[in-house]
Write a structure and sequence with these properties.
The complex is a heterodimer of chains A (118) and B (112).
Chain A (H helix, E strand, L loop, with lengths): L2 E5 L2 E3 L5 E8 L7 E7 L5 E7 L6 E3 L7 E6 L4 E6 L8 E8 L5 E4 L3 E5 L2
Parallel strand pairs in A: 2-11
Antiparallel strand pairs in A: 1-3, 3-8, 4-5, 4-9, 5-6, 7-8, 9-10, 9-11
Chain B lengths: L3 E4 L2 E4 L5 E7 L12 E6 L6 E5 L3 E2 L7 E6 L2 E6 L8 E7 L6 E2 L3 E5 L1
Parallel strand pairs in B: 2-11
Antiparallel strand pairs in B: 1-3, 3-8, 4-5, 4-9, 5-6, 7-8, 9-10, 9-11
Classes of the chains: A mainly beta (118), B mainly beta (112).
């Protein structure tokens, strides 16, 4: 079935890096744009980044611009989020989501938790 | 950035009664392609978000028909005709018309 599975979360010190992965299955990954969305503990949803189906276009939230990098490997059906210079305020559950056609976020992963703490 | 404002933030509802959530955007959500990329998501406790409605009023596959969306421009509404126990959770509106995509603060639906 159509599925997204995030991994790579954990506890990391401020200033360090972490790379999240989102493994896709059950659909033609290379034909869909993909998003990262995060949710801080007890808070609402915050969009983080998007990448076009072919990786040609990327957009970021101001809060992560210059520190986070979204990428994908269509040969591996995997989406990535490289997170550098992490801050306490990046602590959140990170979800990947598929951007369907017509545009709609129709498939979501279960999320992976990132905790930035010394 | 487009600010999405939801009201109410909390909605206690009796089972079988209707519920309504309002979402207002700080700018028109009509895209240059004439589509309005306003969606509604449901997040049940301990679960990831789930798409309910896209482009204002299109119910996503598998979503019960007691959920409906309406509105235009900057004012949008999600209605549940008869609330069921499984509808408990937080509801978010979100816009994908312009970057950065933004969400409302969320409305917590609970049973009285």
């Amino acid at each position: 079935q159509v599925q997204l599975v995030e991994s790579g979360g954990g506890v990391v010190q401020p200033g360090r890096s972490l790379r999240l992965s989102c493994a896709a299955s059950g659909f033609t990954f290379s034909t869909y744009g993909m998003h990262w969305v995060r949710q801080a503990p007890g808070k609402g949803l915050e969009w983080v980044a998007v990448i076009w189906y072919d990786g040609s276009v990327k957009h970021y939230a101001d809060s992560v611009e210059g520190r986070f990098t979204i990428s994908r490997d269509n040969s591996k059906n995997t989406l990535y989020l490289q997170m550098d210079s992490l801050r306490a305020e990046d602590t959140a559950v990170y979800y990947c989501a598929r951007d369907g056609s017509p545009p709609r976020w129709d498939v979501w992963g279960q999320g992976t938790t990132v905790t930035v703490s010394s | 950035d487009i600010v999405m404002t939801q009201t109410p933030l909390s909605s206690p509802v009796t089972l079988g009664q209707p519920a309504s959530i309002s979402c207002k955007s700080s700018q028109s959500l009509v895209h240059s392609d004439r589509h309005t990329y306003l969606s509604w998501l449901q997040q049940r406790p301990g679960q990831p978000p789930r798409l309910l409605i896209y482009e204002i009023s299109n119910r996503f596959s598998g979503v019960p028909d007691r959920f409906s969306g309406s509105g235009a421009g900057t004012d949008f509404t999600l209605k549940i005709s008869r609330v069921e126990a499984e509808d408990v959770g937080v509801y978010y509106c979100m816009q994908a018309t312009q970057f950065p995509h933004t969400f409302g603060q969320g409305t917590k639906l609970e049973i009285k």
